Amino acid sequence: MDQQKKPNTLRYTLCEMAVSDKDRCSFKDNSDFTSAILNAALDAIVTINTDGIIETVNPAFEKIFGYSSDEVLGKSVNMLMPEPHAREHDQYIKRYLHTGERRIIGIGRETEAIRKDGKKIPVELAINEFTWGGTTRFVGFVRDLTVAIEARMAIDKANQAKSEFLANMSHEIRTPMNAVIGLTDLLLETPLTREQREYLSIIKSSGDTLLSIVNDILDYSKIEAGKMTIEHVGFDLLQAIKHTIALVTENARTNSIILELQITDYPGIVNGDPGKLRQVLLNLLSNAVKFTKNGKITVEVSTKPINDNRIETTIQVHDTGIGLSTEQQARLFAPFTQADSTTTRRFGGTGLGLSISKRLIEMMGGEIWVESQENKGSTFGFTIPVELSKLAKLETKAADTATPSDTIISADTQPIPLHVLVAEDNIVNQKVIMHMLEKLGCKVTAVPDGQKAVAAMQENDFDLVLMDCQMPIMDGYEATKQIRSLDASKRGIKIIALTANAFIEEKEKCIMSGMDEHLSKPIEFQKLSQTLRTLVKNTVTKSTIEADSLTQRLETLLKTIGEQAINDIIAAFLQDTPKYITLLENSIAKKDYHSLKKTAHSLKGSFGNIGALNLMHDCEALEVLTGSTANSGDLDKCAVLINKIKCDYAEVSKLLTNKIKV
Questions:
Q1: Which structural domains are found in the chain, ordered by start?
Q2: Is the pTM of this model over 0.70?
Q3: pLDDT digit string (tens) for 195-235?
Q4: Nearest to 69 by CA among 141, 140, 10
Q5: Whose CA is closest to 468, among 514, 431, 423, 502?
């Protein structure tokens, strides 16, 4: 094509198309203006008739697709489309003209197009209908997204690199801190002179402060990178609040502060993110303790209904501390900011705590605020919406006023006689954890990698496994999966993850791989003790309840149908249940919600009939998760429940096998 004619292509075809010579001059000036705009557009503009034949293109089309206008005018627009769109395009037009049904027309979308050189390019396509000279035509606006997508991929890659850097930094900092804080905890439990105890207390306090700063920086970086996620799990709201208050009780006592808790309209079990709630509340409480001397701090909790299933929870922390000016309040929630420049020097901190709290509350759908007067104290409060749990409810308690001293978890000095397998490759961390466990009364066997952990499980009987996640030869995730595939007497063992990565994604990954609990390094002696005691208590309580319910159910059946019939029922149950559990695993692998729901319902009835109530409730929970509103997040929760059902069934099968033998 003559280069001098090229810019006039679109103007000429639009003006000449079905327009008489008489009319042409009357709008020539306006047409020239419109043509200039279209020719200057950076997006490709293509018009086609109802047969899909290209009638006009603009210069940007030639640049994006590599064709000259002469090469495409009069040809099917299908030449620009990959399969199956090229094959189906004509039917799209015919269907629209016949039915008026809009599948593409008037709707922008991202798709692919084909250039002259055969290369596929990502494009944003918008198509609309217009009439010219009494004839229906279609215009397509095509934007090349190649550069935009490459930029998006570069950003994603940078964010991924940032996340990996943060994870590595977390690991590298927390690993030596595990030794510093862990050994300090152990030394503080030994006989010491007053001077030695004072020095160790300073080391401990400094280590805790450093860990808090690291956590703030990591949290803020995760939020900025969009990597912070919100959990949606069931938890006891009152217990979450009480346990958080207990963490500041000792510091409050040192500062001669009275702590009070006031709760009205106690909702019991709710669905939300207990970890983020505790994090925000702990930040507000720590600030209140830091800036209050010889005063009082009151935590006030109230709720109000949003609808039948959701409530708004309001938590306020009132203190009688130094207070804040209006100017200080205005900048309080900005990152890296404190009330004034002297605050950091006097009280320490990064100035990130309240900024992180604000972002977390907003991510949970709530809001946070402050009310304060200088020298008269402050009130920090936040509201968050939570769901009332459908799976578990506690008795509602009327106005409950308690002091935090009622909530302190007393230090249990009773030994924990467990045989514990520790899988940890870092020799220093291994020694710290072993000494802590031995001090708690445990017998300990240590191995340096996951492969040896699996072998040790096959050769010995353990009560508990502490599993480091990052190990050579075989990591903790794969080792856990292999342990869960061992025979029934082995695979139900409780496994606690040990990781220097404090991110919530890491915790979720641990749970998804089959671990029961998660401890972030550095491991603190009291936290380890509390976790082990809680795990043992819950396991014993649960096993006792399950055994009692089984016994009660079997005794009822014995009176009704006789011993032989009971033995037949148990035998059938033990034979069929593993098949159903396998079906659950296959269904989740295929993401088949219908099969998951149907199988869970069948198992729920079987477990209920036999008296395995915990398993029955797990299957009921599985049914709820596989309802009509199920999503990929629910599928992850289903996987955790199925693993739990599989492990718990192993215990029930042993109980029932013993019943038959008896």
A1: 6-144 (3.30.450.20), 229-234+242-253+270-402 (3.30.565.10), 419-536 (3.40.50.2300), 546-661 (1.20.120.160)
A2: no
A3: 888 888 888 877 877 777 777 777 777 776 666 778 777 78
A4: 10
A5: 423
